[in-house]
Amino acid sequence: MTVISVNDDKSFYITQICILTVSALCLIFIYPLTQLDEALINPYYDPVTHQFLLKKDFLLEMFMHKGLKYLMMIIALITCWLWMASFKFDHLRNHRSALIYTFSGMVIATTAVSLTKRFSPHACPWDLSLYGGDQPLLALFEPLPSGINLGQCFPAGHASGGFALWSFYFFFRNSQPKVAITGLYAGAFFGAVMGWAQMMRGAHFMSHNLWSAWLVWLVLLTLYFVSNQSLSHKHPIYRN
What we know:
The protein has helices spanning 6-34, 36-41, 58-85, 90-93, 96-118, 157-163, 166-172, 177-201, 206-232, and strands spanning 45-46, 51-52. The chain has 240 residues and is mainly alpha-helical.
């Protein structure tokens, strides 16, 4: 078992909070000025037919959407199975806490995004009047006009499944650095790929994906802090 010094732990949290704060401020105040949301999905929209031409694309819908979603679910279930197996197999025992927290992190992070999305006023691009739909395009904190239903499309739920792989980074960073780094890169890769695929279909803007990544990271960091507080009562921690 790796023992982390209190000072190192505090430094990690301070760095993470600074990154989350700065990135949130950039997403709130700077990103909207770039108009990247529209610029990045406009090439996939046909103004003549008023449709996103790849909305029903077989590869994007069946493989990139459904296929990758099921892959992320399988990874989560395998992680849960390994946790249960750790009660029987000695070589998994030392990873028991990391496995259950990793599984829990994936579930909680994606659930947090889904719940936020459920109560969001923001609609998907393909439902916006700008792209042939009937929903208004809203600024981040703009209230929903009277008589308009919730858009329920912000942040991006599909991309959160990929970003949730960051759970491996947080909960294996102290015991298995290689697994942690793999989870870090895999989460960024799959989150980006899954998010971009939905942009091509007209389901999300880039900002939806970026906020999804932000929220997933925040949830995992919070759970990581809670898990460390729990483990600190069971194992000694060196104080510098």
